[in-house]
Amino acid sequence: MGYLLPKAKLHQFLLALMAEGSFVAPVNRKADNVVVYEELTDSRDLERLDLSINPQFSHKKFFMPAYEELFTYDMQTQQLTDRKMVPRRRILFGLRLCDLNAVKIQDALFLGKQYADDHYKKARDHLVLVGWYCNKAPSPYCFCGSMELTHYYDVMLRDLSEKDPTRDLIYIDVNSPTGILLMTTIVEKLRHRGIALKEHHEQLPPIMTKKKLVTRDIRKHFDNPLWTKTANEKCLSCERCTTMCPTCMCYDVYDSTEQDLRHGTRIRTWDSCHSKEFTRVAGGHIFRPARDARFKHRIYHKLTYYPEVFGTPMCTGCGRCIEHCPTTIDFVEIINTIEKQKTQGNHK
Ligand code: SF4
Ligand code: SF4
């Protein structure tokens, strides 16, 4: 099911959305001209809305915070007290299909039976996903066309005028019971303001990207020396890629104990497989001390280990890790080069 909204009424539509809960959207920070997801609290914030590019940082912090207090403990009474989260409906607006599929990837792990995570679930239960459809790839680094993305959203908006100037309309695709509920409210609100949304349905076209990953089957390339060469020559282990990636979900857990040594708080923070400390275990052993092993692990986790368990890659082709790597490491180019060497029978 879906609706058509006159494009000139998009602002009113967004104002109605803003009133439905905490509202997160891509905005330009102005001070440094960087587009980020931010919680907007004032209608004037909509003046900074920027839907022209994919935000530099992903949306994951809005349901998997970089720092999170899980519970407090009292060792004397052996009591654990869960950190109470105040349930609050949160609308994540403006997510591209890649970022929506990143939510799907996190859901598969944290909402699944095997590794269900209560804290994640509590935050996720209150999220409403309202996407913004790419009529064309917003960056030359995008390669989502190689990643078999699915329609994982509650509501999706597509600007029809970008492809056909005679259609000055926004198509609103509704894709879930949560989306139906939200849109029923919005349609009613807009009707009271004299704006009628017409019921309509049409297919969303596939998103084409110029950049392509030629294969995801990289098991046979594990020992290719290009991994080691690239990592040792260029990777700084700076963790920028994992911080920006919408699907990277590794974390660390530690206890912050108070001076009385009886009370404390268990804390979860983001971690990164690029860090040497990430695989340190009791006794001090580090499983991946070498930089190239860590670099390769990130890519193999995305394209081999995660798909072996969950059936889909743990990468959506958003391109952030490539665009923002300080030494311009491009893992897609590495894989494409290795494949090309193979087809040319050159394994140097
Ligand atoms: S952003 Fe680039 S240099 Fe930094 S850890 Fe990732 S791959 Fe290495
Ligand atoms: S690995 Fe890179 S391209 Fe893939 S989802 Fe993460 S940031 Fe995006």
Bound molecules: iron/sulfur cluster
Number of helices: 9
**Number of E strands:** 12
Report strand order across the widest sheet.
3-2-6-7-8-9-1-10
Q: What is the straight-line distance between the termini?
A: 54 Å
**Mean pLDDT figure:** 95
What shape does the CA trace take? globular
- What percentage of amino acids are in beta strands? 15-25%
Helix/strand order? EHEEEEEHHEEEHEHHEEHHH
Structural descriptors:
binds iron/sulfur cluster, alpha+beta, 12 strands, four-stranded antiparallel beta sheet, eight-stranded mixed beta sheet, 9 helices, 348 residues
Task: Give an overview of the whole structure.
The strands form two sheets. An eight-stranded mixed β-sheet has the order 3-2-6-7-8-9-1-10. Helix content is 28%, strand content 20%. It is an alpha+beta fold. It contains nine helices and twelve strands. The longest helix has 20 residues. One iron/sulfur cluster binds next to helix 6. One iron/sulfur cluster (SF4) binds next to helix 6.
Summary, kept brief:
The chain has 348 residues and is an alpha+beta fold. It contains 9 helices and 12 strands. One iron/sulfur cluster (SF4) binds next to helix 6.
Strand and helix layout:
Layout: E1 2-6, H1 10-18, E2 22-28, E3 35-40, E4 67-74, E5 79-82, E6 90-95, H2 97-110, H3 118-125, E7 127-132, E8 155-159, E9 169-174, H4 177-192, E10 198-199, H5 225-234, H6 240-244, E11 251-257, E12 263-270, H7 291-310, H8 320-323, H9 331-343
Helix pairs in contact: 5-7
Bound molecules: iron/sulfur cluster (2 copies).
